[in-house]
Amino acid sequence: MAVTDEAIEKIKEMIVSGALRPGDRLPKESELAAELGLSRNSLREAVRALSLIRILDVRQGDGTYVTSLDPQLLLEAMSFVVDFHRDDTVLEFLAVRRILEPAATAMAVSRISDAQLDVLSAQLDALGASPSVEELVASDLEFHRGIVAGSGNSVLCSLLDGLSGPTTRARIWRGLTQEDAVSRTLHEHRAILSALRDRDAEAARSWATVHIASVEQWLRSTL
Is this structure's pTM higher than 0.85? Predict the structure, then answer.
């Protein structure tokens, strides 16, 4: 095992075991290096790596702290990696969304509040009947983010937020080239919202599946 990898593993063990908790300040570099049997240089490299993935927070002049380890914070690293996707993997991202998003939508049925549903409804009303493709895609992202947030599962919310980026260009492309894409998307959004208001989990799951599958099916036919 590389020396830096060993240092990362040892810091990880301290966090997993509870020796270091969220918000805790790490001991001074010289003390921690001696405690873990590491060189100060390898410890420094490990801290740098763990700060990049939001495990540690290096505060200049103050010290190094364990972050909150909140799922949304930790999954930012995944969003960064996802940004490097190739165009030929978009279908794979859509397939993952088709698995997770209907489940999140069904979960939201029993948890999302009427006030949250009113916000989603107002967003759809504000779009009107003939929004531009760019307006529709931006609204689509907010619409689904609002529903997944309503599921009450922060991990699921962060995962889907990170996965939605790679499919944005495909949705814009579809809106520009498929004749009924805008009206179909608006119709599907209304149907999902109606199922949520009716507290019908299976209908909400089904409409969310149809909504994502329609983009996936269109993209398959154009590649």
Answer: no
